[in-house]
Amino acid sequence: MMVSVFLLLLLSVGTFSLPAAQAQLPEDCHDVYKNGSTHSGVYTIYPPEYNKAVQVYCDMDCEDKEDKGGWTVFQRRLDGTLNFYRPWDQYKSGFGDISGEHWLGLDNIFAISWQKKYRLRVDMEDFEGGNVHAEYSSFSLDPESDGYRLNIDNYIDEGVGDYLRYSNGMQFSTFDHGSYSYTAENYHGGFWYTYTVYANPNGLYKWGRHSDHRRGILWDGWKGTYYSLKAISMKIRPLSLEHVKN
Asked: What does the DSSP assignment read for 4-27?
């Protein structure tokens, strides 16, 4: 009798404690940061209803004091060691080293970004030591059935120009898939392309000034169309109450 009661108690504890444990799993890097991890690096997150864990790079060291911590990085270029001219299936699933240069994968980006209201930050660095960033206070992707269409809004002027506006509302394209596959082939990348490019984070790594028009890592309004950036990263973070009100 006592054994039976003990087993019933164990089952009851398990039944009520399991959901609580699951609820504490981080859904993005902002949750990781709130849970007390304040160093940039690779962490495991659990997007709700995605049925699998995802390893991501969490940026906890943004320069802006009010924005420090909790950014989930989904694209990162650092030194040209990784080829970003890849087919659709790799852009869908992701590629590279999460601790270094990588693309997180359209499936993963969608799984993370659909759950909450997110903002987007693009950090850029040139070969002369300059650092700038651009921000949008609204970011989301549509599902694969709609080509992972990009939805961004509310550009926050940081002096580098709103050069993702041309990608807003566009489906993702690679050289072997998408409405603008010819643009992806011509400019050697994969992105939310139109007939041309004004921002090309996944373009060729060309070490600064070059003669290959628009084919480098490009942000048109900062260094121009004949300059390939040294580093660029794209990252998202849930909107704060302040940004939601704005």
From this structure: HHHHHHHHHHHHHHHHHHHHTS-S
